[in-house]
């Protein structure tokens, strides 16, 4: 079966029409999609109920069921997000630079759409509308493939969006939805659709992303795996450090910008760790600590029920749960080295009142976002003012950190002359 | 043998030191490398003579031998290019944007090195010094792998550059050279060096580039394949059109920005093609034309010795020789469609005095550089004012068109706060 390839071909054929549509037409498509989704609330809830029923029967966990569930207020939020995207600055046609060459040729570099954006994600119906919105905002056609558990919900949303495309005068083929299949044949086809797909963005767990990065022949942007550290330097305000660690670890545990590892300077370990681990334990967090962490807790045997000895694997783990690894280090150099060795290049933080230590950490850590004296939880396209976000890139090419509509554009040089030859 | 992986590991370990070196230190390394290369002229010429002797014995073609050959003036040009790179603007530490968030967090996006750049190229010794220069300019370590025919020349240049690194106070391991081997084991290792190589740039013929793009697990930037078109619109100044076609096709035939295909509007085919084909034939160019091209030459049987009927494959061929395909089209829409179907996204040109036609072609063609009334031969980092060039990207992600030192950087967000939590 070549469903994915056929759909990518349709998207590619529709892409030029979206690319050349004026911003008003693209914005109208987004507003109409928002309206259609609001109008289809009953149908979307019914489709979602069928997905949920199957999911429950298949034994899906509660948190995943919650992620899949749509009610009136969530559907309105999905529609509102499309209206927000319609209000965003247009990322197309920006002149990024240019000059007149010695020979009189006028050159300029302008932003243009990528063409066809493919996205593979899990059973999260809202990603369907977000991805559609950001692709239309940036003049791209898209091929979406959501998790099979969200199939009916996604198709209901896709239907509303495709009608909106037609109502705005755009080709409905600019939005394609590929059904998941147990054998992942469609995924493999999308990964191999060179010449049809300009970029593929996987969004989901580490195994989905790994499979895409390793199997893809089309360009991929790696997103989202976050083994984020908070490093407590000896010159830290220890109360502030505890507040940042608690926020980064526990405010929302299943997200990629949550902290998964704590590094503490040796000189403050005894002063900091007992109260810190006590607070973490009270919040239900298990600490995977090294021998020095254990030693620092020697006077608090009551905390050992929330403590396990860390193994080498713990330093690289993204728990996405009420667990955190903890290691005592000698100072900022060792902290930077540890972060660059075990981190995933997502979000990293130092807590310190030392100017020198903060600047050394900011400069030395190789990650999309590096914080001094703030929680890692702020890494987010909305928070950073980029509008809606299609994912957080943890790679270095093309886009790094939160990706908004601008990350779905490329550039083109235009050169105007009067017969210049070389 | 894991030579390539071991060398990539050494480069990765050296990369942070290059990344944090002040611009003055990196510039000094480049100037010292230029000096060392000039001082080693006799040794480099001798090494090159041994390469050339082996190449001749192996039956290498004259043009390839010419590309491999180094004499005093070419060696001085290589050194001068390093001095030029040392004078270029530093691409690191540029603040591309930022803001203060509602909560007081100050965020900024700054340019930083990619880390380790790998480059695979053919038997062109000068690429060794250029790649080294652009990598040091942009604060990256590099792993270079040139064609085996240039082995001794490349190693002589690498030796001079590694000494310069040490003299400037940088680690010599920041420059690694991997020997070619018949089984291409080293190439395969570089392609698979995830976690060690941040980007791999193949530079050479279409088969080398294809092998890298298809085999790589590390991020690759596709460069250089150029099936470039010149489209002669019905409102073209026909003399200007002939001058542009002659320049684009014949000024230098082996380069990626040379024209490989000519599109001509039906309404001017009879007026344009006889003189055009006559001029091409006089320069030794064979025209692979469609039936309408042949028909337009009906009165000139003398030209048929330079004419062959085009096949479907001709539309997609990058001849890199005195050959050109030629097709008659109905107008700008068909021309754009043809270019987008068969082109490689490199450099495309329209010749016309119609404002509307030029703007439609500039907007509609999906390529790195689109020209109105100028030769495709201008696509070049030096010409575009980017300084030395590491290649011309024909992909859309990360970099498109000529790539200078800035294309070897990524960005990092820095966020400074006072204990902000979410």
From TrEMBL, chains A, B:
Pathway stated in the Swiss-Prot or TrEMBL entry: Amino-acid biosynthesis; L-proline biosynthesis; L-glutamate 5-semialdehyde from L-glutamate: step 2/2
Residue ranges of domain Aldehyde dehydrogenase in the record: 8-284
Family to which this protein belongs: Belongs to the gamma-glutamyl phosphate reductase family.
Function of the molecule: Catalyzes the NADPH-dependent reduction of L-glutamate 5-phosphate into L-glutamate 5-semialdehyde and phosphate. The product spontaneously undergoes cyclization to form 1-pyrroline-5-carboxylate.
Keyword Amino-acid biosynthesis: yes
Positions of transmembrane segments: none
One Pfam family this sequence matches: Aldedh
EC code(s) of this entry: 1.2.1.41
PANTHER family listed in its UniProt record: DELTA-1-PYRROLINE-5-CARBOXYLATE SYNTHASE (PTHR11063:SF8), GLUTAMATE SEMIALDEHYDE DEHYDROGENASE (PTHR11063)
Top-level taxon in the UniProt lineage: Bacteria
Gene, per the UniProt record: proA
Record keywords: Amino-acid biosynthesis, Cytoplasm, NADP, Oxidoreductase, Proline biosynthesis
Catalytically driven reaction(s): L-glutamate 5-semialdehyde + phosphate + NADP(+) = L-glutamyl 5-phosphate + NADPH + H(+)
Gene Ontology MF terms: glutamate-5-semialdehyde dehydrogenase activity
Localization, UniProt: Cytoplasm
Claim: ATP-binding is one of the keywords in the record: no
InterPro entries: Ald_DH/histidinol_DH (IPR016161), Ald_DH_C (IPR016163), Ald_DH_N (IPR016162), Aldehyde_DH_dom (IPR015590), Glu-5-SA_DH (IPR012134), GPR_dom (IPR000965)
Name the UniProt record assigns to this protein: Gamma-glutamyl phosphate reductase
């Amino acid at each position: 079966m070549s469903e994915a390839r056929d759909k990518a071909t349709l998207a590619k054929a529709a892409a030029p029409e979206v690319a050349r549509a004026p911003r008003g037409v693209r914005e109208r498509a987004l507003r109409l999609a928002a309206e259609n989704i609001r109008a289809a609330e009953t149908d979307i809830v019914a489709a979602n109920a069928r997905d949920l029923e199957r999911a429950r029967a298949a034994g899906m966990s509660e948190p995943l069921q919650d992620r899949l569930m749509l009610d009136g207020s969530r559907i309105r939020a999905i529609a509102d997000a499309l209206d927000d995207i319609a209000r965003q600055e247009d990322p197309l046609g920006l002149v990024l630079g240019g000059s007149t060459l010695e020979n009189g040729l006028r050159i300029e570099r302008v932003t243009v759409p990528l063409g066809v954006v493919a996205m593979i994600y899990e059973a999260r119906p809202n990603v369907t509308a977000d991805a559609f919105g950001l692709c239309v905002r940036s003049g791209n056609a898209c091929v979406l493939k959501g998790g099979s558990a969200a199939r009916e919900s996604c198709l209901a949303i896709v239907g509303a969006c495709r009608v909106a495309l037609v109502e705005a005068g755009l080709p409905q083929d600019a939005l394609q939805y590929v059904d998941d299949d147990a054998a992942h044949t469609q995924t493999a086809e999308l990964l191999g659709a060179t010449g049809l797909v300009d970029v593929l963005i996987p969004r989901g767990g580490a195994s989905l992303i790994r499979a895409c990065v390793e199997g893809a022949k089309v360009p991929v942007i790696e997103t989202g795996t976050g083994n984020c550290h908070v490093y407590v330097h000896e010159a830290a305000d220890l109360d502030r450090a505890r507040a940042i660690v608690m926020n980064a670890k526990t405010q929302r545990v299943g997200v990629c910008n949550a902290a998964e590892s704590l590094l503490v300077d040796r000189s403050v370990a005894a002063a900091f760790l007992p109260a810190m681990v006590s607070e973490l334990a009270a919040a239900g967090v298990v600490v995977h600590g090294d021998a020095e962490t254990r030693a620092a807790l020697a006077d608090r045997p009551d905390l050992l029920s929330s403590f396990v000895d860390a193994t080498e694997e713990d330093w690289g783990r993204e728990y996405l749960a009420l667990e955190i690894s903890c290691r005592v280090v000698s100072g900022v150099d060792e902290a930077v080295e540890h972060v660059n060795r075990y981190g995933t290049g997502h979000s990293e933080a130092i807590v310190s009142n030392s100017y020198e230590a903060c600047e050394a950490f900011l400069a030395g850590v190789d990650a999309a976002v590096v914080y001094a004296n703030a929680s890692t939880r702020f890494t987010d396209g909305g928070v950073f003012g980029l509008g809606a976000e299609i994912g957080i890139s943890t790679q270095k090419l093309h886009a790094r950190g939160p990706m908004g509509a601008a990350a779905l554009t490329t550039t083109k040089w235009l050169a105007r002359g009067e017969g210049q030859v070389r």
